[in-house]
Amino acid sequence: MGIAIDVPGLDTIIPEIGNGRVVVVEGGADLTNSFFVRKLALTAVRTGRPLTFVTSRDQSDLRELFAGAADLPSGPPSAVRVVEKDSIDGLEEFAPEDGLLVVDSFSFLTLELPAHRLAGLLRRLHAACRERFSIAVLATDRGMFDPRAEAVTIHLSDGFLQFHAREGPEGVVRFLRIPKWTDGKFVDRNIYYDFDGKRIAVDLRSRVI
Question: What is the pLDDT of residues 18-38, one digit of tens each?
């Protein structure tokens, strides 16, 4: 059993991320991608699955977040591991057995890797996830990868989810796209969503041109 997508509306399109999969979540300056991968991490903690969260940012708020999710005032449960890194050249060691690995921000942490080494990292990670029935979710920041690195990352992932935001006549318009997903299907349209820093609200009725 995979990790459920706990976002109403979006969960009708992609109900879960299955075991053995590597998924990329791309976002922009409003950090919706970071919010989304943290939400997946919370789902893992609440359902009792081991979690490893590799971050390029301060880890203290993550520890508080996961401790609160597990209702443990003394800190996060032993099945939760938070790792703060400045760079990575391998991730397979972090994939927990029957659990979830989240990396935020993957594009920053692999900034110095040439495309062929990035490809090797992703292939090793994918093999580890299949062997351990684990899931890896990689948050990336739009515009940080060069074109070769971006192409490698998309090609070697099982799913690719993009959060977009742009200025429109009435303010900021937010929409998401799913160019590639784990079941071989994709959603070839813009899906409207709203984000206030605390929740993502998907509206399948609205059309974004």
Answer: 999 999 999 988 889 999 999
- The model carries a pTM of 0.91
Distances (CA, A) of 165 to 103, 190, 193: 22, 11, 10
Q: Are 191 and 175 in contact (CB under 8 A)?
A: yes
User: Which residue ranges form the domains of the chain, and what is each CATH number?
Assistant: 3-207 (3.40.50.300)
The predicted-structure confidence for 43-94, as pLDDT tens digits, reads as follows 998 888 999 999 988 777 887 887 776 554 444 455 889 999 999 999 999 9
Cβ atoms of residues 26 and 142 within 8 Å: yes
Q: Phi and psi dihedrals of 69, rounded to 5?
A: -65, -35
Q: Which of 144, 176, 142 is nearest to 161 (CA)?
A: 176
Yes or no: say if 204 and 9 are a contact pair by the CB < 8 Å rule. Answer: yes
**Whether the Cβ atoms of residue 208 and residue 164 lie closer than 8 Å to each other:** no
Position 208 scores a pLDDT of 55
Of 1, 17, 32, 18, nearest to 142 by C-alpha is 32
